[in-house]
Amino acid sequence: MMGAATTTPAWLGADLAASTDWIRPLAPSAIAECEAALAGLRRRGRSWPDFGREDFPLPTFGRDLEAVLDELETGRGVVLLRGFPVERYPADELKSLYWGIGTHLGHIRYQNARGELIGEVRDEIARYGEVREGPAVDAVLGRSSRSKARSSGPLRFHTDRCDVVSLLCVRAARAGGLSKVVSAVSVAEAIRARRPDLHALLCADYWRSRQGEEAGGERQVYALPVFAEHAGKFTTQYSRTFVEAAQKLPDVPRMSAAQDEALDLHAALCEELSCAMELRPGDLQLLNNHVVYHARTAYEDVPGPENDRLLLRLWLAPRNSRPLPPAFEVLWGTTAPGAPRGGIAQRGPSPQGGHT
Predict the structure, then answer these.
(1) pLDDT tens digits for 10-50?
(2) Angular region, 3: left φ>0, alpha ψ -120 to 50, beta rest
């Protein structure tokens, strides 16, 4: 069971909403360095994903990004960089800019079994008539996590399969689409205070399905706790969709009524303690998945094929990430701090999935 002390600060959504220190407007010099780095790529005929950090020099802004990583790992775990001039760039050049910034933040990880490195989070059902990159609904497991994210519907609080998730807002919705964040540490502490019996259950294993995310892994399951602590560091890994999917498989142990009650209390406290924010075009949101859950409200798009809400997403493994409990290797590939880890495993020579 988790100890009483953790080095991760807890915070309340109301306090986050009342503060601005986690929002960092970009200085003109930072934008100028990004422009110069993009110009260097153009001269050399380079574009994402075929360049690394050394090809995208950010002499001053790069140090600012190191400070962001420190805040993500040792502070609240949430930072918003505001003011990227996303409207200046055609789509592929904007991805090169985002990729270049990502190389300064860590190792970039795969987001699905088909090699997706920069995700386009948008309503694919409205745009293409279906969810691309894999089946939206499995006959046994039900609707996939990806299909929920690539629609205009709401998303429950969850973590992604990476140390840090970043979202760059290119276009906002006409209405809705608020991003909601909550401190997982605060949620865990509130559950322990109100119902220590349910907190103890959340520190024990819950079975999850990989839900077909990994190539060849359509029926793989694994068990991990929702809350854990290792070397004085808190961690959580959770999406109720994957727990619910596992319960539909015949050989997975059934959840008890108390385990289900614990998940209900977890969901209620995520809502109670959260903060909602509207992401503006040019906002770059960064979240540490070990200490922050995120969710989304439903949204409505502006009509037209290039007016839809669009966020670009990178999954990152920073070089200052925390050590993880040994049991978490089943999901992360390695639990070593600072290692390229997480993401979705690929077929072939990259067993962990990712790009460095």
Answers:
(1) 999 999 999 999 999 999 999 999 999 999 999 999 999 99
(2) beta
| 349: in domain | no
> Which of 153, 178, 180, 160 has the alpha carbon at shortest distance from 280?
178
pLDDT of residue 351: 41
CA pair distance 310, 275, nearest whole angstrom? 21
350 within a domain of the structure (yes/no): no
User: What percent of the chain has a predicted confidence (pLDDT) above 90?
Assistant: 80
146-191 pLDDT tens trace: 555 667 789 999 999 999 999 999 999 999 999 999 999 999 999 9
Number of independent structural domains in the chain: 1
Question: Taking the CB of residue 65, how many other CB atoms lie within 10 A of it?
Answer: 20
pTM value is 0.91
Question: What DSSP assignment string belongs to 59-105?
Answer: TTHHHHHHHHHHHHHHS-SEEEEE---GGGS-HHHHHHHHHHHHHHH
In a domain, 342, yes or no: no
CB–CB of 213/315 below 8 Å? no
Residue 326's φ and ψ, nearest 5 degrees, are -55, -35
| Residue 158's CATH number | 3.60.130.10
Q: 110 is in which domain, residue-wise?
A: 13-332
* pLDDT reading at 3 higher than 50: no
* Residue 115, domain member (yes or no): yes
Strand partners, 205: 225
How far apart, in whole angstroms, are the C-alpha atoms of residue 294 and residue 311? Answer: 14
